[in-house]
Amino acid sequence: MNLTCSETGQLPVGEGRGADLKPELGRLAVHTMTHRPWAVERCIEAYAAAGMGGITLWRRDFAGREAAAVGRRVREAGLVCAGLARGGFFPALTANGRQAAVDENKRAIDEAAACGAPGLVLVCGAVPGQALGESRRQVGEGIAACVEHARAAGVKLAVEPLHPMYADTRSAVVTLGQANDLCDWLGGPAEVGIAVDVYHTWWDAALEGEIARAGVAGRLLAFHVCDWRSPTEDLLNDRGLMGEGGIPLRQIRAWMEGAGFAGFCECEIFSNRRWAQDQDAYLAAILEAYQQHC
Hints:
By secondary structure, this protein is α/β, with parallel strands linked by helices. The protein is about 40% helix and about 15% strand. The protein has an eight-stranded parallel barrel with strand order 1-2-3-4-5-6-7-10, surrounded by seven helices. It has a two-stranded antiparallel sheet with strand order 8-9.
């Protein structure tokens, strides 16, 4: 099943907010983590004023707040919640640890449902020193244990393959091919799909074919954009603004849309440099970069 904008609650360009919605920004959503110094209320206000179509929430946004109240505020501002980050981190050395991860993911699914997010992004996890094959097996078993809960909540689970540099602790699933294989291993439930993040996948020679494979299976749930700075000064918090690096953003977007994806381009940037600057100026730079390079 391919998720169209109407099926995910995402708005087609030019609909929902009417003439005030700039067509070139209607497909843009920004992760609140991109503006880490801002509280979620400020993110909602600024993103709506900028004329973009969506926002991607993080679970940290619910600290001291009810998820439902945050979701209501998003909708009242005229935005669509594109998704919730993040769940996952299933592998553990003990059965108790793995069960705790499943329980935490079920809580995250409930939060996604409460705030109106169509899907929960899964950063799958890994255990240092544990064989990657074993970690991948535990990831699959953990997701399988959450499928029925997700089905009842009406929430999709979006497996996000991470760059291999994170294979030791953050994700044993490091290619889109492995994410597709995982979905196949699970039996292809409609509740489980894939989030494609260009930062993690752009280097993969098999990317175009695996996007097409995911599209045929109806698995393309999310598309995250940023850029790869060279040299990269921090492997976690030095992502580039679109156009600052060498990722072929428009080409990958064309592959996604050619495979049936009709959702948002979600800007997700972790950057110590950008978090230290004026956040309003940073948002203006994001809008310009999106229109020029995506």
